[in-house]
Amino acid sequence: MLKARPSVRSLFAAVIVSLGMLPGVAIQQELQLDYRMNERIVQVPAGSQGQAMLETTVFQPNGSGPFPLIIINHGKDSGRPSLQQRDRFYHMATAFVKRGYAVMVPMRQGFANSTGRYRDHGCDMTANGYSQAEDIRATLAYAHQQSWIDKEHIVVAGQSYGGLATIALGTQDLPGVRGLINFAGGLRDDSDRCAWRSQLVSAFAEYGTRNKLPSLWMYGQNDSLFGPELAQRMHAAFEQAGGRARLVEFAPFKRDAHGMLASRDGEKVWLADTEKFLNEIGMPTRVLFEVPAPPSPAKTGYAKVDDVDAVPFLSENGKRAYGDYLTKMTPRAFAVSPSGAWTWAEEGEDPGGRALATCTAKSTEPCTLYSVDDYVVWNGERIDQAEKIRATASATPAPAAPASSAPTTSVGSTR
């Protein structure tokens, strides 16, 4: 059975790697906890008698609270759920912490470092949504036990598979929960004899008959999984069955609107409609706290960002890769090493950190960022042509075996 369920990370956290004559490698980087938003990881009991533990990221403002709460639910990458990285929804979490919210992002059973078994009901989308909603309900139960949570002001959101599970959750009585937000909710299954689109429409119709909470739905016109026609069918089925939902169809977003929530530029799309919805359901929207921007490397005057020949240590393959990097979306970063290694990363969280981690993992010498976004941050000495030749000679592939240095694409998180 083939199930294609690309996540936010899958669409917007690509890393391209080349290490001279070494084969390309893909490195998974565990992001550091962000002290600026009091990020921490807690274990939330779930499942029968609480035997499973959900790896759950928590952000919150300074102080003891109680804070209003948003729970944000992840989608599913292709492949084994246990290999999926911890989701943080960092950009969305930042916006909510600024507005005084605590944020919880639970990894459901079988995902990332959560224990328990991932439950898959095949092409039965209705059952898939209900099954995943059980872990969100467990997270709500945990939140109600915490003194730092305002138990009367809670909103639940989800992206892709997490959006489907969030709307399924809305069929239950949920004390303190005032509304639901569905970002590109759904689940795609490309296995044989699975009419997953019709199954999704049926699932949302079922959830609509039992719906107890208002919801906001946001789908982009260039969503690669759930395009406008399908989004409209799902929404119509939900409303016609009695569900309460406002559908927002936003304009094409970058290469694929399905990953909008993972992009630092996504806030320009989702924030205004989300604030309007939060006001309607009695949730706060006023900015109360300042969250400092992450530190970024300073711009240098070494070269213009599009001057490929100025980049140190690159072989001809590396130069072609840098030219390709210049076509990528921001945020992005390019790292180099005197050993001839290079990497680039685009979009998602901390592309600079991801590029350095990937490069350093296989390079025999330290890696350094060369450029970030649309400017150069390299502050080393200019390297003359003879030195460049010496530095890259051992990393230049032989003409007879060009495939040995072919870069590999590493897919990191969103759906």
What is the tally of beta strands? 14
Secondary-structure element string? HEEEEHEHEHEHEHEHHEEHEEHE
Structural class: alpha/beta
Helix content estimate: 25-40%
The appropriate CATH architecture of the largest domain is 3-Layer(aba) Sandwich
Gyration radius, rounded: 23 Å
Distance between the termini: 18 Å
How many separate structural domains? 2
Major sheet details: 8 strands, mixed
Account of the 3D structure:
The structure is a single chain. With 415 residues, the chain is of the alpha/beta class. It folds into two domains: 35-280, Rossmann fold (3-Layer(aba) Sandwich), CATH 3.40.50; 308-411, no CATH class. Helices cover 28% and strands 20% of the residues. The protein has ten helices and 14 strands. The protein has helices at residues 8-12, 90-98, 125-144, 161-169, 196-209, 228-240, 267-280, 316-325, 351-362, 385-393, and strands at residues 14-18, 40-46, 52-59, 67-73, 102-106, 149-159, 177-183, 215-220, 245-250, 332-336, 342-346, 368-372, 375-376, 408-411. The strands form two sheets. Strands 2-3-5-4-6-7-8-9 form an eight-stranded mixed sheet, with helices on both faces. It has a six-stranded antiparallel sheet with strand order 13-12-10-11-1-14. A hairpin with a 5-residue loop joins strand 10 and strand 11 (342-346). Helix 5 (196-209) runs parallel beside helix 6. Residues 1-5, 12-28 and 384-415 have low confidence and may be disordered.
Kindly summarize this structure in a few lines:
The chain has 415 residues and is α/β, with parallel strands linked by helices. It has ten helices and 14 strands. It has helices at 8-12, 90-98, 125-144, 161-169, 196-209, 228-240, 267-280, 316-325, 351-362, 385-393, and strands at 14-18, 40-46, 52-59, 67-73, 102-106, 149-159, 177-183, 215-220, 245-250, 332-336, 342-346, 368-372, 375-376, 408-411.
